[in-house]
Amino acid sequence: SMRMQRLFRDLDIQFEAEQFRTLENQAQRRARMEYLAVTMRERCAAQHGSRVKVCGTDGMVREGYLEAIGQGWIQLSTGRENILIPESSILWWECENQAAEVKIDVQARAYRFSMSDACYALMMAQEPARVSCASPVNTMFEGVIARVGADFIEMALSPCEPYFAYSNALTYKEQGVRIIPTSRICAIVTVN
User: Fold this and answer.
1) How far separated are the first and last CA of the chain, in Å rounded?
2) Which residue has the higher pLDDT, 30 or 107?
3) Contact between residue 102 and residue 38 where contact means Cβ atoms under 8 Å apart
4) Over the stretch 64-73, which tens digit does the pLDDT of each residue have?
5) Residue 67 near residue 139, CB atoms below 8 Å
6) CA within 13 Å, CB half, 181
7) Does position 36 have pLDDT exceeding 70, yes or no?
8) What's the chain's Rg over C-alpha atoms?
9) Which of 143, 135, 134 minimizes the C-alpha distance to 172?
10) How far apart are CA 186 and CA 140, in angstroms?
């Protein structure tokens, strides 16, 4: 009968819609499960070359282009400064490129060396640097990294010429060598 055909057609449409919703729900669930496996390092690597904003444990918000990623650190470039930030000192970060592919090969975009190795490279280059440390007040030291230990750096303190113009934080203008645990470093800034 015509009535039964309409009933079966309605039921078929409902069944088809339910199957579509089930497939849609499965796809959403799969996407959620895949995203649960994404690490912050992978999420960050997806932003390589993009503008990011990073807040460190020193309370400073730094903005720049994500230039490099290493084992436990990132490097931002502002055009005027290069900023090396340990991942352990990141409170939060934001990115402009929300649509970036998240599941990428981090190894293809990341350096294999650690924060200590990056400090060693700065020491070898005798690069004047400003080191910001986590403390109740924003503490910065200016000078050159003189030596690098397993979990500390030794910094030969001296006011660095490039920073006089815009140094606005509490900066110790002392001479001598300061030993700084790498676990307390929030950022190392060098001038281009």
Assistant:
1) 83
2) 30
3) yes
4) 999 999 999 9
5) no
6) 6
7) yes
8) 25
9) 143
10) 10
